[in-house]
Structure formats: structure tokens, C-alpha cells
């Protein structure tokens, strides 16, 4: 297997979408907080929000880093800090909600939940999505470049076959009747050259079609 083909086979597997995994763990808290606020304001039974907050905190504190690592993505200090601060915010929010009945300022808590809390969680989740989308785009670009090199290698093989066939034909002509074996070999190599070049052209066409679909 050529080095290009080997690199293509080592491409990351994106069948398990890490963005979907993070959204599954984080989005429920963004849906539940407004409901909790409404229930609190109306003095009716509030939805159970503790486990949802804990799940979202774990997502940013542990699973985000693991998903990034699984896909070979190195995150800078700024993003590491962002994930950690958002996880801390979720923990702080959980504590505030547990203490809500003893809190004299419900308006301040409501403002916090609808403002800083929601905005920061949404922004951090958006940043997580952005990191993976950039990684996917880079992966596709690399694979396209590798495919282009593979087509180039195949074209080069076809050209080399052609020159070998040409030399065989020249040698067959020089030897006359005794060069019949060279002539047969030359014909077969010429067929191989044609097949290799046709395959390269087909691959090139398929690559262009895929780029047009993207």
C-alpha cells in the first residue's frame, strides 16, 4: 500500500458525532431553566433540574475533553479555561437553586439564570461545535489533497508503463523475428498503462463531482 493510500485509511471516523453527544448532555439544561423560572415566578411545582445541571456540568468538565482527545484535537488554554469556567458556573447555578427558598432576592436569581447563565452555556457549546466543525473541514481538505496525490501517483505509474512498453517495442523491432516475445510483452504493458491512466481519469472525475456536491 502506498503512503498516500495508508494515510487515507487512517482518516478519523466521524460516524459518532461528538457535537450531538455534547448537545444531548447540555441542551436539556437550557430548556429546563426557563421552565424552572416560570414555575418559580408562579409559585407552582418546579421541574427537577438538579440532575440536568449535573449532567451538563460533567459534559463540560470531563466529556468535552475526552471527545476532543478521542479525535486528536488539541485545545488551547483559552478554550480549556472556557470549558472549566462553564462547568463551575453550572455547579454554582445548582447551588443557587438549592438555596432558592432561603434567598431573599428572587429577581437577582432570575436575572442571573436568564442572563449570564444561559448566555455563557450557549456560547461555550457554540465554541465546542466550532472546534469540531473546523476539525472536520481540515480533515476533508487533507483527504482531498491525499486523493489528489494518489491520482497523481497513478498517472505517473501509467506513464512509466507506457515508456517501458515503448522500449519493449523498440527492442522487438530491432531484433526482428527474434523479438516477438518483446513485442507481446510491450503490448501487455501498453494495456496496463492505458488502464492505469483511465482509472486516474475516472478518480479525478469522481473527485470533481464530490467537490461540486459539497
UniProtKB/TrEMBL annotation:
<feature type="domain" description="Methyl-accepting transducer">
    <location>
        <begin position="143"/>
        <end position="214"/>
    </location>
</feature>
<keyword id="KW-0807">Transducer</keyword>
<dbReference type="GO" id="GO:0007165">
    <property type="term" value="P:signal transduction"/>
</dbReference>
<protein>
    <submittedName>
        <fullName>Methyl-accepting chemotaxis protein 2</fullName>
    </submittedName>
</protein>
<dbReference type="InterPro" id="IPR004089">
    <property type="entry name" value="MCPsignal_dom"/>
</dbReference>
<dbReference type="GO" id="GO:0016020">
    <property type="term" value="C:membrane"/>
</dbReference>
<dbReference type="Pfam" id="PF00015">
    <property type="entry name" value="MCPsignal"/>
</dbReference>
Amino acid at each position: 500500500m502506498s503512503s498516500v493510500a495508508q494515510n487515507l485509511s487512517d482518516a478519523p471516523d466521524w460516524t459518532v458525532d461528538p457535537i450531538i453527544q455534547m448537545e444531548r448532555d447540555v441542551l436539556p439544561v437550557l430548556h429546563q431553566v426557563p421552565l424552572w423560572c416560570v414555575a418559580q415566578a408562579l409559585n407552582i411545582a418546579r421541574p427537577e433540574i438538579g440532575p440536568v445541571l449535573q449532567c451538563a456540568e460533567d459534559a463540560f468538565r470531563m466529556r468535552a475533553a475526552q471527545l476532543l482527545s478521542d479525535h486528536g484535537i488539541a485545545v488551547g488554554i483559552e478554550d480549556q479555561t472556557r470549558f472549566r469556567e462553564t462547568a463551575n458556573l453550572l455547579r454554582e447555578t445548582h447551588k443557587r437553586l438549592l438555596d432558592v427558598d432561603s434567598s431573599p432576592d428572587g429577581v437577582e436569581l432570575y436575572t442571573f439564570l436568564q442572563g449570564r447563565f444561559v448566555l455563557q452555556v450557549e456560547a461555550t457549546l457554540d465554541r465546542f461545535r466550532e472546534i469540531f466543525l473546523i476539525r472536520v473541514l481540515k480533515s476533508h481538505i487533507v483527504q482531498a489533497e491525499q486523493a489528489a496525490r494518489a491520482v497523481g501517483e497513478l498517472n505517473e505509474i501509467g506513464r512509466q508503463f507506457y515508456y517501458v512498453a515503448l522500449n519493449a517495442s523498440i527492442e522487438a523491432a530491432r531484433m526482428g523475428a527474434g523479438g516477438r516475445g518483446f513485442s507481446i510483452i510491450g503490448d501487455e504493458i501498453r494495456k496496463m498503462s492505458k488502464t492505469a491512466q483511465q482509472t486516474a481519469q475516472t478518480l479525478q472525475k469522481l473527485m470533481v463531482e464530490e467537490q461540486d456536491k459539497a
